[in-house]
Design a protein that fits this description.
Blueprint lengths: L2 E7 L7 H17 L2 H6 L10 E5 L2 H9 L9 E7 L2 H9 L1 H14 L6 E5 L5 E2 L2 E2 L1
Antiparallel strand pairs: 1-3, 1-4, 2-3, 5-6
Helix pairs in contact: 1-5
Length: 132
């Protein structure tokens, strides 16, 4: 069973939402995907995901929901990574090139000390005994 890591991230206050999202999906993605350990250890869960999926928060809609009293999370995005095992995830995080290139680049656009990580596995949604 594949392991999934979800990382919740906040943008730097000095960046606009557009600058944050453009950097994250552009230069940062290129750095991340260019590190050999990522290509070796991170699985392609979906063909269009290119080893990961990113979720970009819509601030306007989030503000409208918060105004209605809904508990909106105070993050600007999330990234999901899949690997065959926790050991593969840790091999990526501890890889010297990953630490030299990817981690410092995260500081360019995000508040890395305020990021939160969840790790677990995906399970198909089942209703009435059928996988949906």
């Amino acid at each position: 069973m594949a392991v999934r890591v979800t990382l919740l991230i906040k943008k730097l206050d000095t960046l606009t939402d557009e600058e944050f999202h453009n950097y994250w999906e552009g230069p940062h993605a290129q750095i991340f995907l260019g590190v050999p350990i990522v290509k070796e250890k991170i699985l392609k869960n979906q063909p269009q995901a290119a080893n990961r999926t990113t979720f970009h928060v819509d601030k306007t809609t989030s503000a409208a929901l918060a105004a209605q009293g809904l508990p909106v999370a105070e993050y600007d995005g999330e990234v999901n990574l899949w690997a065959a095992s926790l050991e593969d995830i840790m091999a990526m995080y501890t890889d010297p090139e990953y630490q030299r290139l990817v981690l410092p680049d995260g500081e360019v656009f995000s508040k890395t000390k305020e990021s939160k990580i969840m790790i677990g596995y995906d399970k198909d949604f089942v209703a009435n005994g059928k996988v949906l």
